[in-house]
Amino acid sequence: MKLRDIAEALGCRLVGDGEVEIAGVAGMEHAGPGHLTFLANPKYAAKVATTCASAVVLSFNANSFNRNAIVVENPHLAFAKLLTLFTTRPRVPRGIMKGAFVGEDVVIGKDVSIFPGTVVGDGVRIGDRVTLHPNVTLYEGVVLGDDVTLHAGVSVREGCRIGNRVILHNGTVIGSDGFGYAPEGQSWFKIPQIGTVIIEDDVEIGANAAVDRAAMETTHIGRGTKIDNLVQVAHNCVIGEDCVIVGQAGIAGSARLGRHVTIGGQVGIVNHVSIGDEAMISVQSCVIGNVAAGEVLSGSPAIPHHARLKSAAVFPHLPEMRKSLARLETRMSIVEEELRG
To answer: How far apart are alpha carbons 234 and 230 in whole angstroms?
Structure first.
């Protein structure tokens, strides 16, 4: 593509020669002639002058060093769109391939690809342009919207509903039984998990994640939410729209997340907690109580991040402070003895 055409496709301002041919995209240090690269971090601004790329994506206030450039508000986002532009391949529907099993009373939309080893249970509804990679399992009564992609090894359990443009990566399980047991003496009696899971449009869930079905009613994942690998969402959780949940996070039963909540890696959230809109929970934090909208928490147990930073500044000095307190205690004992004498 010509640089001019790329700028028009992104709706961005062009600086320099718009007739330059761009064959691909690459990082600043690895780019060569014909490549378009980007500067997202001002710390590396000097590399714009030395990169071998034919053009650079820059923010409005960055120095172009007289290079061909596309000027944007958010270079990182623009580069993500460029990667999509250059790497997206036309989708070729494969139909129902030999080796796939399709049960009874199944409704399948147009232009689907169902690969060998896939099992589609009775009563399943599949929308248009759906891709089911090898060894996907859809239990009975599952509903998939349009443009859904389920990668190899995904399992969607009975009665779960998945919206449009949802992507589930390898090994993820939707609708497995919630972890519910009632004590019976020294043993445990399994509580039937009779609810379901609803995943709204434009959700993406990484590899080997688990979203448990509700004990009753619904476990719900809101539109546009992105969930990383190895995340556990327990039964009856409600996740709002456009949340980001990073790898190895665990969300216990009946927790509720508002809109655009960010959950860092290895965060633990206890059951029945509510987290307000736009809240952020830092990596490896443990949330044991409700979180107000817009709060930023960190630590275990999680407290406001600014308070955690103040505490962290004190931690290295605790041994010396302990010694100082011991010395003060000794001196005070001597003073008290003298006053009594």
So the answer is: 13
Q: Read off the pLDDT of residues 232-288 as tens digits, 9 standing for 90 and up.
A: 999 999 999 999 999 999 999 999 999 999 999 999 999 999 999 999 999 999 999
Which residue, 298, 293, 256, is CA-closest to 281?
Answer: 298
What the block records as the tokens of 75 is 């270079």
State both tokens at 141: 């009564």
Which one of the listed residues 35, 151, 220, 235 is annotated catalytic? 235
Domain spanning 95-305, CATH class:
mainly beta
- State both tokens at 78: 């623009």
Query: Residue 169 catalytic?
Result: no
End-to-end CA, the chain: 94
Q: Is 165 left (phi over 0), alpha (psi -120 to 50) or beta?
A: left
d(CA 73, CA 134): 41
- Intervals of CATH 3.40.1390.10 along the chain: 3-87
Q: pLDDT tens digits, residue range 86-112?
A: 888 888 999 999 999 999 999 999 999
What CATH number should be reported for the domain whose range is 3-87?
3.40.1390.10
Stretch(es) of the chain classified as CATH 2.160.10.10: 95-305
